Structures are given as structure tokens and as C-alpha cells.
Amino acid sequence: MLKTLFKKLVLYFGPLSFFRWLQRLKHGNGITILYGHRVLSDEIILDKNDMRSITGHTSESEVEQAIHQLRKRFKIISMDQAVEQLACGHVETESAVLTFDDGFQDNYRYLYPVLKRLNVPATFYINASVIGTNKSLWFQSIINYFFAVAEDNVLVEINQQSYDLTNSEKRYRAAFSFMQYLQANHKPQEFHSVIGKLVGASTLPGEQDKHMSWDELRELAADPLITIGAHSYNHYPLGYCDEELSKFEIDESIKQLEENLSITIDHFSYPRGHREDFNQHHIECLKQSKIASGVSTIRGVNRRFAEPYSLKRVGFPQSISDDVDDFYWHVAGVPQIVQSLRGK
Fold first, then answer.
1. CA of residue 238 relative to chain centroid, distance
2. Which of 23, 198, 220, 226 holds its CA 20 to 30 A away from the CA of 104?
3. What pLDDT, in 10s, does the model give residues 210-219?
4. Is residue 108 part of a domain?
């Protein structure tokens, strides 16, 4: 309750405007880059037994609500415009960029029509290895397995761990726990073989979990509203890859997208995108491939002359309507402003 009251005080009674004025005075206007993953129908999100409803995804109506809320305080611009303005040191006005990772087919089916109807630009970051296939990315294969198990408990022999699967939320937690085990104990190039031994055909996506086709991506790429970026080839966390594999993950993703879509790829999103998930080697690979920007999942607002290969982003909440104040709180970068005022 106290936190909610504090947010309302900051957002609606002057302090936020004052803090943001100080930031603009010192660093110029800011650009907030928002990121989402899957965007689904309202019916899917309301079904709490559907695995897609509990993994942080959002609905088409919530994206529409986010756009309406953003337009009250920000100008929504493209990634190209954002990078250009940051590089020249002049951000025209407080702005927002919409980005979506992974390239699931629901981005085409549910998200794209909302963007078209509202005439809003967005960037889709794509993992090229699964486009036009009946395959899942490694992490989705694990989720598929834990939701496919018929029993309420399962013993996974690979790590001798027993997992409680008595409800959908516990199944997702079990999948996330196994992902952490896999990353800590196996090399990324082993992920698919280890998962295959564990789950077999359960790794394959159902119709609801497929990625876009090349034809669907071509349609998106031809629309001036949409920018296509690369998100690595297999979605391996680059920080877990050796230099040779991480260079392949970057280069092959760009190559496949450019060859199949007949476009130039200028932007990249680091898989996972935490501070430990990319380093100078990865930045040099992007530069060698003539990539203009790399976005992370480090929270914050980007201001003039921001380092283009470690741009900050803010995640879409699953339900913006539940707490519009919290949405503004993070989009405006209030936690980072408070942190800077504390001298941290």
C-alpha cells in the first residue's frame, strides 16, 4: 500500500516531472526501449492452465493499452530513429521504441494487426534457426516437456532431480529450474542433444508454439512499420559460448535473415541480455558485421551518446491494465533515477 501511494505521489504530484526535468537538463531527452516476447489472444491469457499464460507473455489488448498509455507521454519511434538520435546527441523528445524477441508466430497473428491498426513502428528480433521449421528453441523445448508430462511429479534422470508438477505455475518453475541446471552444467552446443535425450518428441512445438514462416517474415520485412533484427541463431546465451560459437551465433543469424529476406540487418538483441550475457568480443563481432546497435535487458532509459551496443530496455508487464502506475514507473526510468540520486 505504501509503495503504491509513493508511486502515485511521484507520478502525479510533481516529483516525477521534477526528476525527469533534472535528467533532461543534465543528459537530454530519453528513449525507453520496451521489449516483449509472445503476444497472445485475450482468451489464451485468461486461461491459467495454458502454459503460455503464465510465462510473462501479454495479450493483444494489453499491447494496445500500452500503446495508448505511451502516446500520452512519449513519441513512439523506430529503432533506426532511436539509434540515429542517440548517436548524434540530440533526442528530439521523450520517446519509446517497441521491440519483440524470438519470432513466435503469434507475433504475426496477434501483434502485427494491432501495430498496423494503430500505425505504430516496432522491431522484431528473430532467431533464424527455427523460422519455417517444426522445431523449438532449446528453452521452449524444456517448457514443452514439463507441460507434456501427464503425472504430477517427475524424476529427471539427467540431474537426478524430482520436480513437482501439480499445477501450471509449478510446471513452469520446474522448466526454469532445469534450464538453470542445463546452463550451469553443459555447453550450449550440447543443449539440444541433452534435451532430446530427456524429452524426445515432447520437444516439438504444438501448433500454438510455432515460429513464423519465411513468407510471414517477408511480409513483415516489406512493411515500413516493421524492422527485422537478429537475436542469434539458436538463442544460446552468448556469455556461455566460446568465442568461435558466439561469433557463429551472431554471424549466422544475420546471414540467414539477410539471404532469406533480401534485406540488410542493422540491429541485434542479445539472448537473455543480462550484463553477463555479452562482452567486448560480442560487440566487436557486431561491429564487424556492420550492425548498428545491440539491445540488452538491462533496465533503464537511453540518453544522448548512449553506447549503441549495450542499449537498455524495459520489459512489458503481462498485464498493463492491472497497474498503469507501475508501467509508467518503469518506462520513465524512475528506479534508475532514484538510484542515481542515491549516488549508486
1. 15
2. 198
3. 999 999 999 9
4. yes
